Amino acid sequence: MNWNLTESGNTLVPGNYLIGAIYDPDAPSVVVQSVVLPQPYTSPKIFSFTNVEEKIYNFILWENSTPTVGGTSRNAFDLQPTQNTVRIRPDLNLTAGISTNFAVGGTSYVADSPNDVTGWTYWIERKPQGKQFEGESVAIDANGFHLLQFGDLFSDGEEWVLHFYPQTAVTAPISVPTGEIIVPQIITGDIPLDNTFTGKTGLIQGISSHLTITLPPLSAMASNKVFGFWSAGGNHLCATLQCASDSIANTILWASGVSGRPTQVMLGQNEGIKFFKSDDAAGNPVYYAFQPSDTVRMSGEIIFEYTTIKLNTTFGDGGERDWNDYARLRKYVQGLPPAMVTTEELWGQAATPVDGVTYYPNMAKYTLGDFSTFFRVPLLSKYGFFRAVDGSTAFAGDLFELQMLNHTHDSVSGYRGYNGKGARTTSSQYNSERSPLPSDLSSGPFNVPGANNQGTILTRVGNKNWPDHTGVYALIRT
Predict the structure, then answer these.
(1) Torsion over CA of 50, 53, 58 and 63, rounded to 10 degrees?
(2) Helix, strand, coil shares of the chain as percentages rounded to 5?
(3) pLDDT tens digit string along 358-369?
(4) What CATH number does domain 3-88 carry, 3.90.25.10, 2.60.40.10, 2.30.30.30, 3.30.565.10?
(5) pTM for the whole thing?
(6) SS3 for 324?
(7) What is the b/e burial string over 16-49, where b = at least 16 CB atoms within 10 angstroms of the residue's CB?
């Protein structure tokens, strides 16, 4: 996507340049893109970062004597690009006795017209003290601020800085066309559409397990004319709605988040979506998607069910899935971080046994199979229980072997000599006896016919460790 920004403000030194630069937080010293704002800076300047990912970047507005990144940082913040234009401005540096309307011995500041702060949000730094807290030492006014502490005055030469937050200028909403789509057209196989599809609803009923429908070329479509699709019936598991290749701008715009500008949308059974052509904020023609079925963007979600057969899901059984029949889930897998996807070779590979138990650490991960005909879904029932992880020290799909907190006992033998020593007691009862001696931590041997009933009165043993629970099937939305 393109990220549009507007800068308002001038340089500290006449003739200097303003340079906007974005950095990846994972490599904060590496410039992803930079833009030199054209001089002079007497009016707002619009500039753009092009083809950026929709993730958080570090932004720095530099002032430099040359048109290159570096020099003095005039503003810095973290922000994720959106379709809306972001307004920024350099920090405002004030010196008592020098800056306009910033008098020595004064208690308030009102910005003059070149530095007007009306409508901006900012925090105030007083050097060398640091940040001033609103409501304690300062109060923000409509076009400036004033001091709150009794006897507090601006000292001669004292430096203050107003640090401005970025503002999102909301783009005027597009008027979504009204009116019903009343002309149905049954689609049973691969087909390229043209401008005669305007005003129609494609009733997708594939003969095969998957099909591809190419949307009309943008260049052939009039703006604000609606068409749509409803996928129900037939034999298909996945219907791909693919943009034509008539323009690099021929993408679908339907969100500002991750994957907000795909070149294709995929429908399962009983799902629908509508489109119309219009320009984006940068003036590029795109297809706007609206009124999609809720499940269109839920691929990869894990749900629990009492059946393994549910519409637009697949059982998390560790099996292979067809590359094209389950294309929407496969694209979801292709977008996952590498830590959550393993190879076919490693998926079924056992780790070194722990306490005599053989673990398979990768079976809860996806694979991309042979990268052309199949991929593999996780075996979610292999170990069964799920726990939230932080995404930095542990990731979805990681296996955590059985463990317990490290602890000690003051002796290995209790009253019976083999069950571990607990606290001395005269009230606890083990093995139907009362004892003033150190108590046993568990009872003597106990056997009852039946599976998983060997062990002690207190504990049944088997080949797994688990609390009381009820079994359900783990399904994955396709």
Answers:
(1) -10
(2) 5, 35, 60
(3) 899 999 999 999
(4) 2.60.40.10
(5) 0.56
(6) coil
(7) bbbbbbbbeeeeeeeeeebbbbeeebeeebebbb
